[in-house]
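pinning this so it doesn't scroll away 📌
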Amino acid sequence: MLRFLIRRVLLLCPVLFGLLVLTFALIRVAPGDPAAAIAGQNTTPEQIEAIRKEYGFDKPLVTQFAIYLGHVAEGNLGTSVYSGLPVIDEIKDRLAATLELTFFGLFIGVVVGVPSGILAALYHNRLPDFLFRSVSIVGVAVASFWLAIMLQLLFSMRLDWLPLGGRLAPGTDAPTTITGLYLVDSLMTGRWDIFVDALKHIVLPAFALSLGSIATLTRFARAGMLETLQKDYITYETAAGFSRHAIILVYALRNSLGGVVTQLGLLFGALIGNAVVVESIFSWPGLGSYSVDAVLNSDYNAILAVSLVIGVIYALINIAVDLMHGLLDPQVAERL
């Protein structure tokens, strides 16, 4: 297991290098003059040329990329051309918000999707199975941005049950920063009022984000449980007189979750991608809304930094998923 962990961490470097190369190339070959975009309107050619030299846009692409890699190696992700602040500081302020929303959405997906898939398998080709499969099909088909708007219209504007957007109510101070996750920090500091308020604000965007993961996990949990229930050892345990309850909980459940665990890493990446839209709709101050602003403002350092940070997080999550898979399945652990 340790060798696997070391090998995956070492492989992380070329993956991130390739991600930076691809992102850097796409940004630089996109139509438009980055110096002109930074300068804005009503600027002279001389001013644009001065900005081009200041930011190094007059150098060859290979030289620009080498300079950027040197800065990254030093822990410097550059300065935002829009705000003038270090990009790494702006990302620190927003990263926790995106992680909290993503993990909460993934938590909803697991809590709802896995039991739904297991129940669908246990009632195979009966009414519960038909209902859960229908819901999973709808979950895959519905776009997260449409669902987010519908949730706002119903629960915020018509029923007035939940906030329309934001992370906390206006005038509410954030809890003492420990992890940056408001739900966790408010619990750790005993601020139940902030916890309730943060929970109200995160429910709608997290559910809008999680519908696709609920559908995916339902399908994989159902398929895994159906396959496990057909194994010979399940037939043997049934013939030996074990109760159906014990067979499902003790023997079938753990062995049926391999596909579900594998999907968690892929779903995390999908949720990060969907968070761009959901955060914009709910005014959630995370990396998604930050990346949208960076693209609109041609903030190249910010775009590169967001791509790098998300790539690192996505790779680490997939390593954690592989380790979890090994803990669930001893055969997988031996191959690791």
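📌 and the second one:
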Amino acid sequence: MSTQKHPKALYLLFFTEMWERFSYYGMRALLVLYLVSEVGKGGLGWTSAQAGHLYGLYTGFVYVTPLIGGYLADKFLGFRYAVMTGAALMALGHGALAIESMPTFYLGLILLVIGNGFFKPNISSMVGQLYPKGSPLKDSGYTIFYMGINIGAFFGILICGYLGEKIGWHYGFGAACIGMSFGLVLFYSLQYMLGEVGLKPVKVDKVVEAQPY
């Protein structure tokens, strides 16, 4: 019977990703509703067509920018610095959305798009670096990691959605900011668990192990 265990750094990445997905899906659940809600109810009073156009642009850029963020991390920054940069930008972005102002609203979306580009591709790449080549635990490690995505998304939609619709839109955006900020603080304060993983760009065939569990 194998006594191998997952590195404890996996659970750091699990919870960091969980809080990021909490903020991302929590905010996304509110965005269109906030745009089309009546001005008297705290929304912007946009038409469905206008809201759909902005939402499409936002989600499109969210899926494009990881190509740039992944390249910069892989060639210059390292995964760890890219993840922290992305998390900080997204926390600021959610915070900007929580302010009732159109300039900060657009600024918030821009920060979220850029931050997502740095964060999204690089934290999952760090999961792979936790395991030596050929490790039988790697696949199950990714399974555990992706559970964090599902948990964060589920509670983000529930909590941010409830606060946004029942109390005030900007309270929902504020909850997303708190979630992302918590993920950033968690990752920064416990990054020692990662050892040398993600500190600088590494060759594909180079193995950098984290501390064993």
